[in-house]
# Entry
Amino acid sequence: MSRRVDDFDVVAFDADDTLWESEDHFQAAEARFAELVEPYTPRGIDVLDALHAVERLDIASQGYGVKAFTLSMVRAAISMTNAEVPTAVIGQIVEIGASMLVAPVHLLDHVPEVLDRVGRETRLALVTKGDLVHQTRKVTTSGLEHHFVDVEIVLEKDPSTYERVLQRLGVSADRFCMIGNSVKSDVLPVLAIGGHAVHIPYHLTWELEIVDDHDDDVTELGSIADVPAWLGLD
# Structure
Protein backbone atom coordinates (compact mmCIF):
# COMPACT_ATOMS: atom_id res chain seq x y z
CA MET A 1 0.00 0.00 0.00
CA SER A 2 1.40 3.37 -0.96
CA ARG A 3 1.72 6.19 1.57
CA ARG A 4 1.97 9.95 1.44
CA VAL A 5 5.10 11.80 2.45
CA ASP A 6 2.93 13.79 4.87
CA ASP A 7 2.50 10.57 6.87
CA PHE A 8 6.11 10.81 8.09
CA ASP A 9 8.22 13.31 10.00
CA VAL A 10 11.41 11.39 9.17
CA VAL A 11 12.24 9.03 6.32
CA ALA A 12 15.44 7.10 7.00
CA PHE A 13 17.64 5.17 4.60
CA ASP A 14 20.04 2.33 5.12
CA ALA A 15 23.44 2.78 3.42
CA ASP A 16 25.18 -0.43 2.33
CA ASP A 17 23.39 -2.06 -0.63
CA THR A 18 20.65 0.56 -0.42
CA LEU A 19 22.56 3.69 -1.41
CA TRP A 20 25.83 2.14 -2.56
CA GLU A 21 27.45 -1.21 -3.35
CA SER A 22 28.76 -3.25 -0.44
CA GLU A 23 27.99 -6.96 -0.49
CA ASP A 24 29.61 -7.27 -3.92
CA HIS A 25 32.96 -6.45 -2.31
CA PHE A 26 32.45 -8.90 0.55
CA GLN A 27 31.51 -11.77 -1.76
CA ALA A 28 34.50 -11.07 -3.98
CA ALA A 29 36.67 -11.13 -0.85
CA GLU A 30 35.12 -14.44 0.23
CA ALA A 31 35.86 -15.97 -3.17
CA ARG A 32 39.49 -14.86 -2.92
CA PHE A 33 39.66 -16.16 0.67
CA ALA A 34 38.50 -19.58 -0.53
CA GLU A 35 41.14 -19.63 -3.28
CA LEU A 36 43.86 -18.83 -0.76
CA VAL A 37 42.82 -21.20 2.03
CA GLU A 38 41.39 -24.28 0.31
CA PRO A 39 44.81 -25.74 -0.66
CA TYR A 40 45.64 -26.02 3.08
CA THR A 41 42.23 -27.22 4.26
CA PRO A 42 41.45 -30.91 4.95
CA ARG A 43 39.19 -32.61 2.44
CA GLY A 44 35.49 -32.39 3.29
CA ILE A 45 35.45 -28.89 4.81
CA ASP A 46 33.25 -26.25 3.18
CA VAL A 47 35.49 -23.22 3.46
CA LEU A 48 32.77 -20.57 3.14
CA ASP A 49 30.40 -22.35 5.55
CA ALA A 50 33.21 -22.46 8.08
CA LEU A 51 33.96 -18.77 7.54
CA HIS A 52 30.30 -17.83 8.05
CA ALA A 53 30.19 -19.88 11.25
CA VAL A 54 33.18 -17.97 12.61
CA GLU A 55 31.56 -14.66 11.61
CA ARG A 56 28.39 -15.58 13.53
CA LEU A 57 30.41 -16.30 16.65
CA ASP A 58 32.49 -13.15 16.29
CA ILE A 59 29.64 -10.66 15.89
CA ALA A 60 29.02 -10.47 19.64
CA SER A 61 32.58 -9.32 20.34
CA GLN A 62 33.59 -7.65 17.06
CA GLY A 63 30.39 -6.25 15.58
CA TYR A 64 30.06 -5.66 11.84
CA GLY A 65 32.15 -4.23 9.05
CA VAL A 66 35.33 -4.87 7.12
CA LYS A 67 37.66 -4.95 10.14
CA ALA A 68 35.52 -7.54 11.91
CA PHE A 69 35.23 -9.52 8.68
CA THR A 70 39.00 -9.49 8.18
CA LEU A 71 39.66 -10.73 11.70
CA SER A 72 37.06 -13.48 11.18
CA MET A 73 38.80 -14.51 7.95
CA VAL A 74 42.13 -14.77 9.77
CA ARG A 75 40.62 -16.77 12.65
CA ALA A 76 38.75 -19.06 10.25
CA ALA A 77 41.84 -19.68 8.12
CA ILE A 78 43.89 -20.69 11.15
CA SER A 79 41.11 -22.85 12.59
CA MET A 80 40.08 -24.78 9.47
CA THR A 81 43.69 -25.54 8.48
CA ASN A 82 44.71 -26.63 11.97
CA ALA A 83 47.11 -23.67 12.04
CA GLU A 84 48.94 -24.92 8.96
CA VAL A 85 48.02 -21.95 6.74
CA PRO A 86 51.24 -20.14 5.76
CA THR A 87 52.01 -16.73 7.18
CA ALA A 88 52.14 -15.38 3.64
CA VAL A 89 48.51 -16.39 3.10
CA ILE A 90 47.48 -14.67 6.33
CA GLY A 91 49.23 -11.57 5.02
CA GLN A 92 47.22 -11.76 1.80
CA ILE A 93 44.00 -12.11 3.76
CA VAL A 94 44.83 -9.02 5.79
CA GLU A 95 45.57 -7.18 2.55
CA ILE A 96 42.11 -8.10 1.24
CA GLY A 97 40.56 -6.28 4.18
CA ALA A 98 42.93 -3.32 3.89
CA SER A 99 41.96 -2.89 0.23
CA MET A 100 38.25 -3.00 1.07
CA LEU A 101 38.68 -0.19 3.60
CA VAL A 102 39.92 2.24 0.96
CA ALA A 103 37.74 1.10 -1.94
CA PRO A 104 35.80 3.95 -3.60
CA VAL A 105 32.08 4.31 -3.00
CA HIS A 106 29.92 3.25 -5.96
CA LEU A 107 26.44 4.74 -5.72
CA LEU A 108 23.49 2.68 -6.91
CA ASP A 109 21.31 3.94 -9.73
CA HIS A 110 18.85 6.78 -9.01
CA VAL A 111 20.08 7.36 -5.44
CA PRO A 112 21.07 11.07 -5.62
CA GLU A 113 17.89 12.17 -7.38
CA VAL A 114 15.65 10.16 -5.04
CA LEU A 115 17.28 11.66 -1.95
CA ASP A 116 16.96 15.13 -3.46
CA ARG A 117 13.28 14.64 -4.31
CA VAL A 118 12.23 13.13 -0.98
CA GLY A 119 14.45 15.47 1.03
CA ARG A 120 12.65 18.50 -0.35
CA GLU A 121 9.46 17.27 1.34
CA THR A 122 10.56 15.76 4.67
CA ARG A 123 13.55 15.20 6.97
CA LEU A 124 15.93 12.46 5.91
CA ALA A 125 18.14 10.38 8.18
CA LEU A 126 20.78 7.75 7.47
CA VAL A 127 20.85 4.69 9.74
CA THR A 128 23.61 2.18 9.08
CA LYS A 129 25.50 -0.37 11.12
CA GLY A 130 29.17 -1.26 11.01
CA ASP A 131 32.57 0.12 11.85
CA LEU A 132 32.41 3.80 12.81
CA VAL A 133 35.56 4.88 10.96
CA HIS A 134 34.85 3.00 7.73
CA GLN A 135 31.16 3.89 7.57
CA THR A 136 31.95 7.54 8.28
CA ARG A 137 34.48 7.52 5.44
CA LYS A 138 31.89 6.09 3.05
CA VAL A 139 29.28 8.64 4.08
CA THR A 140 31.61 11.62 3.73
CA THR A 141 33.11 10.49 0.40
CA SER A 142 29.77 9.50 -1.14
CA GLY A 143 28.69 13.09 -1.76
CA LEU A 144 25.35 12.32 -0.12
CA GLU A 145 25.90 13.49 3.46
CA HIS A 146 24.25 16.88 2.92
CA HIS A 147 20.88 15.21 2.31
CA PHE A 148 20.61 13.95 5.90
CA VAL A 149 19.65 15.85 9.03
CA ASP A 150 21.15 13.01 11.06
CA VAL A 151 23.60 10.16 10.41
CA GLU A 152 23.42 7.24 12.83
CA ILE A 153 26.16 4.58 12.71
CA VAL A 154 25.04 1.88 15.12
CA LEU A 155 26.43 -1.39 16.44
CA GLU A 156 23.25 -3.32 15.78
CA LYS A 157 19.86 -2.76 14.19
CA ASP A 158 17.36 -4.11 16.68
CA PRO A 159 14.18 -2.64 18.20
CA SER A 160 15.96 -1.06 21.16
CA THR A 161 18.49 0.62 18.86
CA TYR A 162 15.75 2.07 16.67
CA GLU A 163 13.94 3.32 19.77
CA ARG A 164 17.07 5.20 20.83
CA VAL A 165 17.52 6.62 17.33
CA LEU A 166 13.91 7.82 17.24
CA GLN A 167 14.32 9.41 20.65
CA ARG A 168 17.38 11.33 19.44
CA LEU A 169 15.48 12.39 16.32
CA GLY A 170 12.47 13.47 18.37
CA VAL A 171 10.04 11.46 16.25
CA SER A 172 7.40 8.91 17.22
CA ALA A 173 7.51 5.44 15.68
CA ASP A 174 4.24 5.91 13.80
CA ARG A 175 5.74 8.97 12.04
CA PHE A 176 8.97 7.20 11.05
CA CYS A 177 9.74 5.19 7.93
CA MET A 178 12.89 3.12 7.34
CA ILE A 179 13.97 2.13 3.81
CA GLY A 180 16.60 -0.54 3.21
CA ASN A 181 17.65 -3.78 1.58
CA SER A 182 17.60 -6.02 4.65
CA VAL A 183 14.34 -7.45 5.99
CA LYS A 184 16.22 -8.55 9.12
CA SER A 185 17.86 -5.20 9.91
CA ASP A 186 15.84 -2.50 8.15
CA VAL A 187 12.26 -3.79 8.27
CA LEU A 188 11.33 -6.24 11.03
CA PRO A 189 12.82 -4.33 14.01
CA VAL A 190 11.14 -1.10 12.84
CA LEU A 191 7.77 -2.80 12.46
CA ALA A 192 8.26 -4.29 15.93
CA ILE A 193 8.26 -0.82 17.53
CA GLY A 194 5.26 0.42 15.54
CA GLY A 195 7.14 2.17 12.74
CA HIS A 196 6.89 1.83 8.99
CA ALA A 197 9.44 0.19 6.71
CA VAL A 198 10.06 -0.48 3.03
CA HIS A 199 12.16 -3.32 1.68
CA ILE A 200 14.16 -2.71 -1.49
CA PRO A 201 15.91 -5.99 -2.35
CA TYR A 202 19.50 -5.99 -3.54
CA HIS A 203 20.76 -8.65 -5.93
CA LEU A 204 23.07 -10.01 -3.21
CA THR A 205 22.30 -10.68 0.46
CA TRP A 206 24.84 -11.40 3.17
CA GLU A 207 24.42 -14.91 4.57
CA LEU A 208 23.84 -13.57 8.09
CA GLU A 209 21.10 -11.15 6.94
CA ILE A 210 18.87 -13.77 5.32
CA VAL A 211 15.46 -14.23 6.96
CA ASP A 212 13.77 -17.46 5.96
CA ASP A 213 10.44 -16.98 7.69
CA HIS A 214 8.46 -14.19 9.34
CA ASP A 215 4.81 -13.29 9.87
CA ASP A 216 5.00 -9.57 9.13
CA ASP A 217 3.40 -8.02 6.07
CA VAL A 218 6.40 -6.38 4.38
CA THR A 219 6.12 -3.56 1.84
CA GLU A 220 8.53 -4.19 -1.02
CA LEU A 221 9.54 -1.96 -3.92
CA GLY A 222 11.48 -3.02 -7.00
CA SER A 223 13.94 -0.14 -6.87
CA ILE A 224 14.83 2.94 -4.87
CA ALA A 225 13.56 4.85 -7.92
CA ASP A 226 10.04 3.78 -6.86
CA VAL A 227 10.25 5.54 -3.48
CA PRO A 228 9.00 8.99 -4.58
CA ALA A 229 5.92 7.49 -6.23
CA TRP A 230 5.25 5.33 -3.14
CA LEU A 231 5.32 8.56 -1.12
CA GLY A 232 2.92 10.25 -3.52
CA LEU A 233 5.54 12.59 -4.96
CA ASP A 234 5.22 11.69 -8.65
In short: The domain at 23-101 is CATH 1.10.150.240 (DNA polymerase; domain 1). The first helix runs from residue 23 to 37. The radius of gyration is 19 Å. The chain has two domains: 5-21+105-230, 23-101.
